[in-house]
Amino acid sequence: MAPRGARGGGRSGSHIGGRDARDRNASESHNNAESQPSSSVRGSNILEQVPSNPSKRKFIEFDSEKEFTNQISVIRAIACILKTMFDGPWTSWKKVDKEHHDAMWEHFKGLYVWPEATDVLARKVWEDCMKKRFPDIMRRAREESLKLAKAANVNASLEGDLNLLKEYHPNWIKKEYWEKMINEQATLKRPPTGVELYARLHTKRSTQEYITPKAAKVKEAYESAMVAKFGDDTSCHPLLDNETWCDVSGGVKKGRIYGFGSVSDPASFLEGTSSTITSQEVVYERVRNEMRGEMDAKAAEMEAKHQQMREEMDAKAAAIDVKQQQIDAKYEAMEKMYATLQNMMRN
After folding, report:
1. Residue 68 shares a structural domain with residue 159
2. Most buried pick, 14, 228, 259, 310, via CB within 10 A?
3. What distance in Å separates the CA atoms of residue 278 and residue 239, rounded to the nearest whole number?
4. In which residue ranges is the amino acid composition biased (Polar residues) (predicted)?
5. Domain termination site, one of 188, 221, 249
């Protein structure tokens, strides 16, 4: 049995509708897929089922704020949960939406139990493990895809054209997701265009929606203007056409260009015409370097806010625990008073 005062997940990972059925189907599909070549998995890839009796959950503790005591076996379980519940074109842990974050966490809580006082720490260590494990799992997925491609006599490599791997998705990733993931990885192997850089800075990571209506309108206006200026074949477009961008975004205002922040020399930005890709790469590099300071400052500010939120949540959790103890004490006092009254009435 789990130690007294321990806490884990009382639910069996049913945060997303039909989770139990999906777990069974995923287990069956991985049973059938074990005969296929794979270099990305060691041992079983079947999702461990949540025990029907909560007392059968495995007890875990923490060596520090970074690892579980039985880190190796827990990491294997975490990797298996991620693979079996993989349901999107996720190339990094940050791209996994909150719904699936929570569903995976609920399943993990159904498998393990830990000291009740370490609930917040348990979630933090679990998140850290997922974040650190994700790149290795993706690397193994690419290796598995490459192995399947070579088995089909496709002359592919991880350093070459990744598009050759689109047809050879790992058995635990849907083909449609794998194609999107390959497209993203192939794009990242070249310098991003101005629009791609702009999109990364002005869209919400969870939904990929633009943060403001203006941000979306500027992007659409720029793409339309580029097609009108250079034709439908976007591969022939420059990385960034400064003049066009300034036209659709409102120009330089107080030394700032909408979408790209402060520019130390707006005139040179405007003079960086689209005649050659090389000139655009120089302009892009200069703008990117000038933006890096602003981005670092924003990242530091966000981290400070997140830390403050974590501290506030911990403080609120502690206050709730104190309040619960007070309620329990009052309840016990009322029970004693009720018992005393009953005795007095009998006498």
Report:
1. yes
2. 259
3. 9
4. 28-50
5. 188
Taking Cα atoms as reference points, which of 168, 25, 178, 173 lies closest to residue 87?
Answer: 173
Please tell me which residue, 127 or 191, carries the higher pLDDT value.
Answer: 127
Query: Are 219 and 198 contacting, i.e. CB atoms less than 8 angstroms apart?
Result: yes
In a domain? residue 126: yes
Return the structure tokens found at 85: 């519940």
CA distance to 36, 90, 100, 267, per residue, from 97 (Å): 29, 9, 6, 42
Here the tokens at position 168 are 């050879």
What gap in Å lies between CA 223 and CA 244, rounded to an integer?
10
Query: Structural domain of residue 222, as residue ranges?
Result: 194-304
Sheet with strand 261-262: strands edge to edge: 252-253, 256-257, 261-262
How far, in Å, CA of 345 to CA of 347, rounded? 5
Q: Which is more confidently placed, 13 or 205?
A: 205
Q: At residue 163, what is the residue type? A: N
What share of the chain in percent tops pLDDT 90? 15
Pairing of strands 58-59, 112-115: parallel
